[in-house]
Design a protein that fits this description.
glycosyltransferase, quercetin 7-O-glucosyltransferase activity, alpha/beta, EC 2.4.1.-, 21 helices, 479 residues, 6-stranded parallel sheet, globular, UDP_glycos_trans_CS
Length: 479
């Protein structure tokens, strides 16, 4: 007999910054009694499996199921073999992603609905990343409630959402101008320099088709979830709620250590716990530019120079492939850097960021301003030096530095010097300004903690979503 339990088909976006909150959302929904079928692309599953000690792992949610959560796991192909290098053939792959992936998802959803006799067809619903362009089509074909999950702040969502209004007023593309925009609903004012990088671009390609197309599609969603906190983006969220059922449910972190062990990393994680435990509290600067963004060698050299000048203890994540223009022998650090900092520094290719940020030795974070990094840094009470590179990171910086005052800018001009890097490190790690930043971040951290506590804004919003989506599924099943 088919169950009346609501069953979410969750299709995750392929980037690290999306995988982490998507997995955490699946765990949270399952803990509320939903059945989940979670889908990764085949190549993403392969990367996650390779990054773990158990490279033959076939089910990343096995531990969650053993703890009583009803989460099934499946994978599907993007149409390319696993060994196809999607980064080298990025433009070609993007076209496949735009044009052919929707049919792959169609097959996936159709097979899930056909093969599962334990759930009544009317009890299924779809949760897809907002950056996908196909949810409307798939949801309509199978009669599914359509839930869009936005993994970035509401401010960034709103800017994309109001793209046509920005175009009508001549503010997109930005084209190098710096102008104040004060006519967007729920956004008191924002400088065009703080727009996401895709709104600056004058030459539009396949990537822009996907991004902008996704925001046409999301306007038809039945519900929109956002990994942010209502209390820190109240006006923006309130304005969006005038147009759509929009729920701020963040920050999405695992509720317990057992589910925290579920594999989410696309790269093998080095452990630095022993080294960090040997350092004094608040003495170590953590440096990481995330899983995706690239920069050039000059930036790396100036940061290295700044770390040398500052004398600070540090742990630096230098991800393989992060530097665009590697020259000569392929080295990116200045000669002698690692030998000269061996007693106070550690350079790793990747790490468990949460583990690092939560260590008492960490006193600051030099970050690219990825949204997960910001949420994790605030949650750990670690103030930031901001060096955004592209996409939402530019807008996220505004929230961190200008609005919440929990971080500072790395460089105030177009370029940076090692002297400026050293100066900003000193400001962040010690002195009056450092104390002010720490006081402010504790306030925001408390706001976050209150939001996800029982009766807090995110807790209430999540429960409201659970009720609303359940009622909508029931309403449709009765028709």
């Amino acid at each position: 007999m088919a169950s009346n339990r609501a069953h979410a088909v969750m299709v995750c976006f392929h980037l690290q910054g999306h995988i982490i909150p998507f997995v955490n959302l699946a765990l949270k929904l399952a803990s509320k009694g939903f059945t989940i079928t979670f889908a990764h692309l085949d190549f993403v599953h392969q990367q996650i499996s390779k990054s773990q000690y158990n490279a033959t792992q076939t089910d990343i949610f096995a531990a969650a199921r053993s703890s009583g959560l009803d989460i099934r796991y499946t994978t599907f192909s993007d149409g390319h073999p696993l060994d196809f290098d999607r980064s080298v053939s990025f433009d070609q792959w993007l076209e496949i992603f735009r044009d052919e992936l929707p049919d792959k998802v169609d097959d996936l959803v159709g097979n899930i609905l056909q093969s599962d006799s334990s759930t009544a067809p009317s009890n299924y619903f779809l949760i897809a990343d907002t950056l996908y362009t196909w949810p409307k089509k798939i949801a309509q074909k199978y009669g599914l409630v359509n839930v869009s999950f936005w993994t970035e702040p509401a401010l960034v969502f709103s800017l994309y959402y109001h793209l046509e209004l920005l175009r009508e007023n001549g503010h997109v593309p930005v084209n190098g101008r710096r102008e104040i925009v004060n006519y967007l609903p729920g956004i008191e004012s924002i400088n065009t320099k703080d727009f996401m990088s895709y709104l600056h671009d004058t030459e539009l390609g396949v990537l822009h088709d996907i991004m902008f197309g996704a925001f046409d599609d999301v306007k038809t969603a039945d519900f929109i979830l956002c990994n942010t906190v209502q209390d820190v983006e109240a006006d923006t969220i309130s304005a969006l709620q005038q147009k759509h059922p929009f729920y701020a449910i963040g920050p999405l972190f695992p509720a317990d250590s057992a589910n925290n062990s579920i594999a989410k990393s696309l790269l093998p994680e080095s452990s630095s716990a022993d080294w960090l435990n040997s350092r004094p509290p608040g003495s170590v600067l953590y440096v990481s530019f995330g899983s995706l963004a690239k920069t050039d060698k000059k930036v790396i050299l100036e940061i290295a120079g700044g770390l040398l000048l500052s004398g600070v203890n540090f742990i630096w994540v230098l991800r393989p492939g992060m530097v665009d223009s590697i020259t000569g022998d392929g080295g990116v650090l200045p000669e002698g850097f690692e030998d000269g900092t061996r007693e106070r520094g550690m350079v790793v290719p990747w790490c468990s960021q949460n583990e690092v940020l939560r260590n008492p030795a960490i006193g600051g974070f030099l970050t690219h301003c990825g949204w997960n990094s910001i949420l994790e840094s605030i949650w750990s009470g670690v103030p930031m030096i901001c060096y955004p590179l592209f996409t939402d990171q530019i807008t996220n910086r505004k929230l961190v530095v200008d609005d919440w005052r929990v971080g500072i800018n790395l460089c105030d001009g177009e370029s940076m010097s090692k002297e400026e890097v050293a100066e900003k490190i000193e400001v962040l790690m010690s002195g009056k300004r450092s104390q002010e930043l720490r006081q402010e971040i504790q306030k925001v951290r408390t706001t976050f903690q209150n939001a996800i506590s029982v009766g807090g804004s995110s807790d209430q919003n999540f429960d409201r979503f659970v009720l609303d989506v359940s009622q909508e599924i029931l309403r449709r099943s009765c028709h």
